[in-house]
Every structure is written in C-alpha cells, then in structure tokens.
Amino acid sequence: MVQKKKKDTDVGRVVLSEHQLARLRYVTTGEENGLAILLLECAEFTDGIQQLQLLKKIGSLLRKLGEDSVNDSQIDICLDILVRIYWDLESRSPLKRAIASALSGIPEKLKEEVISCLTSCLRDELLTVDKSHVRKVIDSIAACMENFSVGEECMQYLYLEVLQFLHTTLVDFQLQNKKLGGQHILQNKLMHDSLVALKAVMILVQKVQQKIHDVFCKNADPSLWEAMCGLLTCFIEILLDGDFLQTVQSTAGMAALLFIKTIVDCDELLPKLVHDLLFNSTQRTHNVPEWLIQSCGKLYSAVPPDGAVLFLSQGSLAMLDWRSGRMRDSGERLLLDILNVLLSLNTRLKESSMAMSVSRNLSLWTTSALDALHSDSCSQYLKNSLNGNSEAIQKLLEYIWTHWEHPLDGVRHQSKTIFKNLLKIHQKTIDGFCGMTDPFFLNMTNGLLSLEWHIKGKYISLGCLVEHLGTEYILTVVDTVPKQVLGVMLEQSLATYASDLLEKMFVSHKNQLMSSSQSSNWMKVWHETWISPFLTILCEEKPSRTTYLIEYYLPKLLKCNPDSLTCMIKELQSSDKPSNIGPFHSRGALGALMTCLRAARAQGLLNTAEESAWNQLIPISLIKQALVHKHEQVRLDALGLVCETHRSTEALSQQEIELIKFFLPYNMNSQTPAMRQQIVWLMRKLFSRLRDSSQVLYKQTQSVNRQKNTLNEEETSQHPELKLQQYKNFMVWVCDRLLQALFPGASFPRKFIVLNLLGIIAEVFENLEDQTYSVLQITDVLKPAYVDALLGCLNSTFEELKLLAYDLLKKLPATILGLQDSEKLQTLLQTALDLSTSTKPYDCITASYLLSLLVQQEGLLPTLHACSLKKRTGYLSKVHEKQPADEEMLETNILEVIKFLLHCLSEEIRQAEKSLVHMAATNPLYGRVHCIIGALQQLSLKSVSNIAEWRETVARLILMAFQLSAVVSPICQSSSPEGLIPMDTDLEIAENLQKILNEIKPRDTNDYFAQAKLLKTDEDRELSKNTSDDCKPSDDLSMAMTDQTGQACQVTAQMVLVCCWRSMKEISLLLGLLCQNLPLQSTPDSEDGLLMFHQVGEIGKYFKCQLLQSRHRGAFELAYVGFVKLTEMLTSCNNSDLQKLPQQWLEEVLQEVKSSSPASKLCATRRSAGIPFYIQALVSSEPRGSNLGLLKLTMKELISLALPSATRQDEHATIPQVHALNILRALFRDTRLGENVIPYVADGIQAAILGFTSPVWAVRNSSTLLFSALITRIFGVKRGKDEHSKKNRMTGREFFTRFPTLYPFLLEQLESVANTMHSDSGVLKLHPSLFLLLLVLGRLYPSPLDGTCSALSLAPFVPFIIRCAHSPVHRSREMAARALVPFVAVDRILHMAQSLLETLPAPTDLCIRQNHIHGTLLQVVHLLQSHFDSKQRTNLNLHEELHDIIGCTRAKIWLATRQNPCMLTRATFLDVISVLWHYLDKSKTIDPEILNFWQATHLIILESELFTDQQKFSPVPGLIQWQRSITKLTLSIMNLMKCVF
Predict the structure, then answer these.
(1) 3-state SS, residue 110
(2) Is 857 helix (H, G, I), strand (E, B) or coil?
(3) How far apart are alpha carbons 95 and 118 in whole angstroms?
(4) pLDDT digits (tens, 9 = 90+) for 840-849
(5) Tens-digit pLDDT profile for residues 226-255
(6) Which of 126-140, 490-504, 1261-1275 is predicted least confidently?
(7) 726 CB contacts (<8 Å, ≥6 apart)?
C-alpha cells in the first residue's frame, strides 16, 4: 500500500548568544549528562528536531533534581538561560512548548527562581517601544497562560502591568486602523493582532478574576481602576467603530461583559446593569456606577448601533452565569428580553456575516435557556415562558421555518441546533410528562409531515424529532414515510438530506426493535420497512434515477446491518427469473444484484480473495451478462464489482482478469461522457490495486525464495511468481489492445478512453524509488508505429485529446519518441512553427503542445538555429558549446523559443500594420502568442536563474502585447466588429475593399443606438439606381487575394474579426499569466523581481482600455480573466501604492459611468459590453474577511443610478441608468461575491420593477435582464422542467422576512397595478409592472407552519391580486390566479374560494364581463387544487365547508351551460367541477347533496355540444380548452359511476 508522504514541520531553532555560551562553559562540570552540557550540545545542533529531543531530555533531568540542587549556581544559570530561550522562541514553536513543559516540572523549591526569571524577562518585554515587536510580546503573554503553570503564576504577580501594556497596545491599534484605509494586507494584519490582544486580555482577566474581585471589594488600587476602565472604554470604542472586523467586535463585546462581571460585586445588580446597557434605558430604577457611565458613556448617550447591541448580547449570553441561578428574577427577565432583541435585529441586519452572527447568538440563547432551566432556582414563570406553546418559543420556531433553507450553510446549521435545543427546552418544561403524547410534539410532527418533500429543512427537523422521540413515533403518525423519502432520493438536490434522515430513522428503528419485547422477530420487520421498498425501486426505476439512492442510501444501510446483504441476494435471486434483465427502462433483478454486490464488496462484506469465491457467490455467466447489459449503469456496476475492493492490496484473481478482458473490447467506444469517465475511474482503481498487490506478492516471493531450501515445496515458491507473471501478461495485453485502438479514423470516445487508460498506466506503474517491483513499464510495449499514433493525437481537433496525448508523451524518454534523431526533431519543430501561423485556430493549439514537448529535449537549440537559417528569419539563436545541466536545459530552451517567437511576431506585427487583412488571411497573429503562453506554463517563473535575460524578455513580451493590441483593438472596439474590415495602407487592397466598407459604415458613438433608422423611400430607391457601381454594396462580402505560396484565398470580415479577437484573447491571457506567475519588485528602486511596478501600471491601463471600450464579447470576456489575475496580484502584494490601485480604478470608472453621455467611449449597447466585467473584477478582488468597502461603495452608487429619477427622462440621460442596471446584473450573478450581495437584493428588485416602467427601451431591456438575475439569486437555479414546481419557490413568510423592505414596495406597486384593471371605456390598459409583480408573487407558496404576524400580514395583498385577475390579458389572469394561493391561510382557502364563487354574476345580470369571470374561476381552480393537494387536514368542518362550495358551484352552474356564450369561461368552470369530483372520488363520500351535484353535472354533459349531433363546432376562442375540459369531466363522471353504481 502506498503511504502518504509526511509533511515536513518547521520547528524552529534554538540559538544562544556568545555571552550565554560563555556562562554555560564556565559552569560546566565533568558530569557527562549535566544540565549545562546538554544545553551546550543543544546549541551546537543546527537541526530543530535534534534540539527538541535534547530539550525533552533536559525536562526529564529537571524533574529529577533533588533538594540539594536549590542553591547550585549551575542550575541557576541553566534555568535563567532556559527562560531567556523561552522568550526568544516563536509562540507556536514546539521548542517553546518543550521548554514550558520542562519548566513546569521542576521541584517546588526551584519554582520561585524560575518565576523570578520569567517576571524579569516579561517586565523587560513590556517596556518595548518597537511597534513591530508588540505582536511577539502579546503572543508571549498568551503563551504564558496556555498550559504553563509557572507562566500563570508569573501573571499573578504582573497582571496589572500586563493590563496596562495591553491597554496601551489596543489604543495604539485603534489609531493605526484609522490611518490604514485601503491597505488590505496591513489592515488584516492589524485586525488579527487586535483579536489576539483581546483574547489575551480575556484569558488574563479570567485567570486573575478572583484576585481582581478581591482588590475591588477592599480598597481598589487607582492604577487597577484606570487600567480596567480604560480597557472597557477600548472595548466599547471597538464595538462602535465600523472599521473593525466583526470577529474583533464580537470578541470586544464578550470582553466588555467579562470586565463588567468582574468589577460588579452584586449578582442581582449585574443583569440590571447589563439590561440598561443593552436597551439604552433612560428611566433606571437603580443607581448606575459612575465608572460604568464613564467607560460606556457612548452607549448611554445615544442609541447604540445594531452591531454593538448584537455583540453585547452575545457577550451577555456567553459570560453571564445562567446555570447557577444567582441572578434571580432579573436574570430571567434579561434572558427573555435578549431573545426579543435578537429577533428584532434579525429583521434589520441583512448582511451575510451579521445574519450568521444573529443565528449563532440565537443558538447560544437556547443553550443559555437550557442552563437556566437546569438551575435549582428556576421559577415557574420562566418555565411557562419557555414552554413550546409560549410566545417566545413560537417566535423562535418562526425563525427556524424562515431560515432552515437560508443560502448560508452556517445559518442552516444553527437553525438545526436551535430546533434541537427547543425540543430539549420544551421537554424540560414538561418534566414528568411523556413526550410521546404531548400535544406540542404531536402537532409539530403532523405539521412537518404535512409539508412538501422538496423543503430541505423538513428532513433536518424530522431527523431531530427522530433523535428525540424515536422512529416508531414517526411511523405511528405516518407509516409510509420510508417509501416517501426513498422516492425523494431520486432527485440530486434532496438526496443527501433524505439519506441522512433515513439513516437516523433505520438506525433508531433497529435499536428500538432490538430492545422491544418482539426482539426475536425484529429482522423481518426491519427488512420489510427499509429493504423491500428499496429493492422495488432499484429494480423498477430507470437506472439514471437511482444513482443517488445507490450512492447515499445503500452503503449506510449495509453499514447499519451487514446481515441485510444476505436478505437482498436471496430476494433478488429468488425471483421468477434470476437472470432477468428487466423491462426496457429499468435495470431489473440482475442489475439490482450487481449494484448490491458492488456496494457490499467495496465495504469489505464479501470475501473474494480465494479463486473459488466467485463461483460460490454468483455464477460468472451472470457477471458477463451484466458486463454487456443494455443499460450502461448495469455495466458500470458489474465493472465496479470486479474492480473495487475494500483493501487496495487484494490480489486479482484469474477470473477477474478474464472478466476485464471480456469487458474492454465491448465498451471502449462508449458514447456517453459519464460512462467514459466512470470506466476510466474504475480502471484506475484496478491498476492501482494491481500495483499494490504486486508489491506484496513480490515480497512474498523474496521471502519464500530465502526459505526454499528448508521448505522443499516448489508450489509454494512458484505461486506468487505465477501470479506476477499473470499480472505482466495481462498488462501487456491491455497496452497492446489500447494502442491498437488508436488506428486512423478512430472516434473521439475510443481515443478518449485509450489515452486516459494509457496515461493512468504510465502514472501508476512509474518506476519510483520506493517501489521494489514494477509489473510493467509502458516503454516496454511501445513500438515506433504506436509512438507515431500518439504523436498524431496531438493533431486532433479535440483539445481534450491533445492534452491527454501530451501528458502521456512528456512522460516518455526521447529515445522512445525518436527525438534523439536531429532530422525528426527538426521536422517536428518546423511543423510546430508552421502550425503556429495557421488560419485554423485548433492548429495553433497543436503547435503549442508540440513546442511544449520539444522544449524538454536536449538537442532543441541546434535544431532551432537550423530552422531559423532555413526560414531566413534573421534570428541568431544561442548555440551552447557545452550542453547545460538538466535543471538549466528546460529554462534555456524555453527562453530561446520565446525569443525566437518574439522575433517572428515582431516582423509579423510590422506587416500587419501595413495590411491587417493580408495577415488575417495568411498569417494570423494569435498563434504565436498562444505558443508563448504554452511555453511559459512549462516553467516556474518565480525560480528562474538567468534574471537579467528574463527581465529583458518580459519587457519585450509586454511591449509586443501592447503593439499587437494597437493593431487589432480598433476592430474589437468598433461598434460593429462582426462586419468590419479596416482600411489598409496598401492602396491596391484599399480599393478592393471599398465596396465592403460602404456596406458596413460603422459608427462608434453611443448615440448610434438612440437615433431612429428610417426605411428608404421610393425617391431614395430611384436615387440609388443612379449611383455608380463602385459605391454600391457588394453581395459578396469577401475579396480575393493570394497567400505566401501564391495560392488564392478569400478574405471575409469574419476572418479579420477572428484574427483580431483571438489576438486580443491571447494578449489578455499572456498578461494575466505574467501578473500571476512573475515575481514582483519588492520596492520601486530595487533590482529584484521580473515584473516592474511601472509595468504593472501599464498593464492595468491596458486592461481598463480593453474592458471599457471593446465591443466584441470574446475579447472582453477573456480580458476579464487576465484582469482578475492582475487584481488578485495587487491585493496580495506588500506595496501599499499597488494595493490602492483597485479602489482608485473603481472610483474612476464609477465616476465615468455617472457622467456617461452619447459622446462617451463607454459602450451603452451589448449589455454595456466589458464595463460590468471590469467592475466585477475590481469588487471581487477584496480579500475575504475584509469589511467589503469596495462592494458597499459600488452597490450604493449603482443602486442610486439604477433607480428612476425625474432628471433622467430622455434617452441620452438614461445611459448611466442602463450601465448601472447591467453592472448590477453582473454583480448579482457573480458566485465569488456569494451571499455578500443579498442585502442589496431588495433594492435591486425595486430598481428592476421601476425601470420596467421607463419609456426608454434600453432601460426596460436592462431592467428585464436584472430582474431575471435577481429571481435566480432569490429562488435558486431552476431545477426542473415544471415552471410552477415548488422546488424554486419559498413561502410568503420566508420571502418577506428575508426582504422586509419589499413588503410595502410590492404592496404599493400592486395597488397601482390593480387600479388599472377596471376600465369603463373598454380600452386595454396594461401596466408595465403587472407581469413582474405577478411573477414574483407567483413564486411564493403557503406553508402550514406559517404563524401570524401583524407586521408582515399577507392579507392586504389579497384584494389587489383578485383585481389583477380581471386583466384583459390571458397570461396575466393565469399568473394572478397562481399568485393568490400563497396569500391565503391554509385554513381559509375553502372560505376564499366560496367568496370568489359568490361574486360571479347571475345569468340575468346586465353587465357580464367574461374577463372578470375567467380570472375569478382560475383563482377558484388554483385555490381548490392547492387545498386538496395539501397533506394537512386541520379543519374539522371540512365536510360542511365542502357542501358550501358545492352549493355555490351549483348556484353558478349556468356558466358551464350554453347560456354562457364564452367557451373559455365554460371550460374553466368545468375545471372547477372536475377538481371537486376528483376529490369526491378519492374521499368516497356520498350523500344527498353530492348526488344532486352529480345529477346537475350529468345534465351539463348530456346537454353540451359534445352529445348533440345538430351542433357543429365553430372555430371560436376557447373551443380547444372547452373540449379538453368537457372530455376530462366526462371521464371522471364515468369512473365515479363504475365505483359507486
């Protein structure tokens, strides 16, 4: 088995000064293992590991010192030196920990001296004035209090001086922080230093808390008062300073409460003071100490910010002692009030980090509440307040329901913890009562089970209930839960959640069954509950749908009960057809058997080490049948059964080898990408297993051969050797079979599998130093024809195959490739150079791989010189008289190749400046640059040796990039790059292109999109007839010219564009590569580094120009990739000027966007082209953990621009708004920003909806795109084909809890939209925002767990949505019907449907509006479907309400008859009747009212046009819908008649 290489650990090193060495030598005695001798030996070693061993030996010696050693001068000097060494070492050094351990073990008599030394050293350290040394002092202070008893005693003496030092340090940190704006590296370091200092203060105060408390109880020392109050003031200032990171503020909040707790003497007064501090109480019934007012005056004088309140609440929960009960009633009230504060903060704090902190604090609150309930002095008032039915717990449950699917993993995890603790809290409040019969648990279980299974939080909560109450309790409520959850596991997004729930359930069920009275029969019950449904799904479902069931559920099932495998095999083999391959769409029993056996063998449940094991387990013929099964998944399972084992050293049997030989020929040309990847992955496992087992076999062979003379048994010695020979024969067969498959014309799938497997063989069987035996070297089977076939793969049109072939070829020696032959080497090099100028883009990729292969060859430089002379390029390559060393050869070859390509490219750029069209047709420029990039990627540029030459080459590369960009960028920056051929300086070519230029005539200003384009009039057409032929546009937009060989070629605008944008692409990638990999100058004047500061600035200007002005998407998308690498380099560099560049560029571009005009070079079309990419790269460059200042600045500016303004009404003035909308869309879609953009989603929605009302088309278009991005950001990526599926939806309560500002906005907009629905004139009035509003509201759905909250009541939306259903637009009525459902409470749905039916007109009414009728009926249909599809039936009066619905339906039944002339409304009313009958059919309820309803329905069908021969159908609107509805209703009635009568 291959062992992982251990990571080298840097332990540091002990270094003694000359003075210390002299002292040790002076006291050295003749004793061999004396303390001084050991210290001198330790100083002589240069290896930290050896020093560590000696320090441990010194520690053992110190522990053995006797009483007579107390006054020994040698001991005193050695201890003093050890203490000095301790202070000099780094805090996390193992050497420092070893010394601390040694000093902690000394005899008591010597401890005073050690403490004295430590105290002296610490005093010296505390006097330091060097700011760079402060962090080391803080680390030393912290180290003294970390598992170092002597150090802790030292702190008992110096705690006041340490507190004063830390106070001074924190004040200095606050001043430094104000001066470091924009310097991310230094700011992050300062934040970390501040955090360490705060933690050191807290640990120190906790260690000496009792001592400080005693001092304050007597006559407090003024210095201590000053230090403690000064530190408390620092904590409060950090809390109120928004420039500090939230982790620092959080620690400051806990430190503040720790200090207050330490100073305050009275336990009952403490919670009152904390209450006033948190809630800024102006009317205090008790006296607040003066020191607290002075230290926390800013909190008392004004309302503290939400962040400060949050972190002080966290400090209260973490630092106060809730379990002791000493705080009495005031503590309980404080606990309940803190919950209200946290829930209030949750509605206001929307930043991701703050949302995480709130959830963490709520989880901490539940832990504190549990502690309070465990207190002996817990009052009944607190128990009642924390009961599951109490207001506090209900609010917490509301929080859980709205956050259990939060985008942040941390919030979801904390919601789970809160729910677990709530169950424990309620259980604690009902001590003495059985939880199984408790109404709270019963209602909770019913409520969770009634939810839709697509809700991920449902699985987590049910899992908590299973852990708390057991599986049998859940099965008692609903016994079909296992089958339902197994059905859900067919979906990828829910599989992990469902599998975790199932695992908890079947493990709990097993434990309950085994401990019950029927434990003897538990296996049968458990099997029927958990295994039989699984096997049914496995056999009958499509193999593609059971992937996650097999991956997540089956291994856990086998791990829980390994004996279940026997039941599975027996059940699958005992079917009518044991070899059944199943119906066409399923895997059948054979496939299910392979699946189960594969999973079992991978877990080590099958013993297949013996040759005869396979025949005993399953017939080999069945495995062969599975290996060629019609379903790919069955084939993969059979292959996995053969390849995967629990031990990687298990030997391959001859049967397994034969099965692999049987499998490969039939499956090497698989057309499914997933199948190919799985085959490669499984074969890698097989080859690794063969390698590892061969090592074991070889060792067995050597061992047996040594004992051969004594054993006298040849069979014993030959068995491992025969097995190794089988291995070798098998691998030779595999390699030959694979290499023969690389025949000319082989398909991509075949080549993909072959190259992958050959690469794996070369990698797995590589001849490593630690391997004692190798089965095969791939070079042993390679013939010249096979090598040529591999080289031919580099010319494939698929880059994936090129890469695989290159990775394999570079592992082969030059002798195998034949590259020691200079003629072949020159041929390949010339081919690569020729391909680098090909007009086919994939040829330059081939050239790059060829050059990357050739630069690794020794004879490249003479060959390059020969090619240069042959081509007469004028380039003189460096020819070494002496061959460079291997480590220098690659660098030298790459450098020379890059210089040669640069020389060629410089000449080609000069030609392109004269005629870009000619170069595009004959010698595109991008191929050379691509080859340069490929060559640079072969070398680590941070460790090159020839610095001067590389620096010159880098300068030439950057200059070449700028020159090439100047030639090709005008095309990409044109307003119409797709059809532009530039004017050339060659007069003859220019005349030939005049026709094309007349056809294109691009315009490069932003007013181009705003001006009207008029069609030609008849007069214009007459004038155009008289135009000369030269000025007329040509039908053929191409021109004829000759290439370098004299052959004719056609040049089109597309060819020029491809040349230009690909050149721009390669330039951007090259510059990005240089920024990412080149070492940067340390200072502007230094001579180190390959990339200069001024070059960084020039590259930044280049990217800015290309991203802000390029119109071609390919050009600016790839420029973005390079620019991201530049910004990452700037963020991580140590120079403050370079660190500020991203912020400077961002401010400049935002100002340019704000002042955009038609004359601006910024592109207002093409979704603002590269502008969003430019800003996206700058904003995303902020380091993680920062305060996201650039993001906040950008979002604030963009949202203000995106919102409509009275000053921006015409098309020219809306250009900044268009840019803002497009940039916001890019930022909301950026995955790197993650959840940091969530606080701005509500503002984005408002901007998109309001922008849709703009009279300017460009604004409406950008608003639509932004709205689409926001819908995806809020509800997630669409995970199904069903547009109305609940997978991408959320409850109304959850939506408005996350985005509370949208509640009044959507309500106001909806009201204005609803007011346009009624028009007495009959004129169509379609509000622009109607569709967007209904689209958002339609994504919501009701939840049975939603509580009531007056602040976010959904009732005000209902009347406006009902009015929206009266829209004259059919699609709007449908959306309004769907949008109404989530705004109606679950127990009010039938009542709302009845109310809507009552509003329908009677046949005698004078004014009947069919649009109103249709919208109302649609809403009734969706309400009834939602109610009947719901799994919860909480309404006890359901039968009575159903009669009311049927009565209302019968009262308006004329709408389904011929009295109603509108076919569409007739069809919709029939749908209402169908929904009712569908439920009545399921409920099997029959009574007189229902019989009357059946007769009325029967009469409608009989009197309809469907059953009358006289009536012929005329093509009227709604006819198709009516025919479908009447047919559906007829079939329902016929089915009901069969069942009843």
Answers:
(1) helix
(2) coil
(3) 17
(4) 888 999 999 9
(5) 889 999 999 999 998 888 888 999 999 999
(6) 126-140
(7) 652, 654, 657
Residues 1379 and 1342: beta-carbon distance below 8 Å = no
Cβ neighbours of residue 661 under 8 Å, at least 6 residues apart? 730, 733
What DSSP character marks residue 107?
-
| Residue located via tokens 């803190």 | 338
Write the secondary structure of 1042-1095 as one string of H (helix), E (strand) and C (coil).
ECCCCCEEEEEHHHHHHHHHHHHHHHHHHHHHHHHHCCECCCCCCCCCCECHHH
d(CA 1098, CA 897) in angstroms, rounded, equals 25
CA distance between the termini of the chain: 74
Q: Report whether 592 contacts 535 (CB < 8 A).
A: yes
Residue 200 — pLDDT band, cuts 50, 70, 90?
very high
For 1303-1453, list the strands marked E by DSSP: 1340-1341
Rg, C-alpha atoms of the chain? 40
**Chain-centre distance of CA 720, in angstroms?**
49
> What one-letter code names the amino acid at 314?
Q
Expressed in percent and rounded to 5, the helix, strand and coil fractions of the chain are 70, 0, 30
Q: Which residue has the tokens 């005093």?
A: 123
> Which amino acid is located at 143 in the chain?
A
Give me the pLDDT at residue 1027, please.
Answer: 45
- Counting residues of the chain whose pLDDT is more than 70, the rounded percentage is 85
| pLDDT higher than threshold 50 for residue 5 | no
Give every CB contact of residue 86 below 8 A, 6+ residues apart in sequence. 96, 99, 100, 103, 118
pLDDT given at position 574: 74
Pairing assessment for the beta strands 1340-1341 and 1290-1291 based on DSSP bridges: parallel
- Is 935:851 a contact under the CB 8 Å cutoff? yes
> What integer is the mean pLDDT of 117-132?
82
SS3 1291: strand
- Band of the pLDDT at 1441, cuts 50, 70, 90? low
The number of beta carbons lying within 10 Å of the beta carbon of residue 124 is 11
Which residue type is seen at 1180?
Answer: S
Residues in the chain: 1541
pLDDT at res. 1208: 61
DSSP-derived pairing of the beta strands 1038-1042 and 1048-1052: antiparallel
Residues 787 and 818 sit within 8 Å (Cβ to Cβ): yes
Bridge partner residues of 1049 (DSSP): 1041
In whole angstroms, what is the distance from residue 1247 CA to residue 1203 CA? 5
What b/e string do you get for 885-903 counting C-beta neighbours within 10 Å, with b at 16 or more?
A: eeeebbbbbbbbbbbbbbb
Largest CA distance in the chain: 130
Tokens at residue 1037, please? Answer: 């937009």
Q: Phi and psi dihedrals of 1048, rounded to 5?
A: -75, 145
Q: Quote the tokens at residue 431.
A: 């001590």
Structure tokens at 306: 């939400």
CA–CA separation, 87 and 140 (whole Å):
7
Q: Which residues contact 1045 (CB under 8 A, 6 or more apart)?
A: none
Residues 6+ apart with CB under 8 A from 157: 115, 119
Residues facing residue 1091 across a β-bridge: 1080
- Provide the token pair at 942: 């941070």
Average pLDDT, the chain: 82
Sign of the dihedral through C-alpha 499, 500, 505, 506:
positive
**Calpha distance 1351→1330 (Å, rounded):** 25
Q: What is the pLDDT of residues 1038-1089, one digit of tens each?
A: 555 555 555 555 677 788 888 888 999 999 999 999 999 999 888 887 878 8
Cα–Cα distance measured from residue 704 to residue 702, given in angstroms and rounded to the nearest whole number: 6
What are 342-380's pLDDT values in tens digits?
Answer: 999 988 888 888 889 999 999 999 999 999 998 877 888
Q: How far apart are CA 553 and CA 494, in angstroms?
A: 12
Cα distance between residue 59 and residue 104, in whole Å: 9
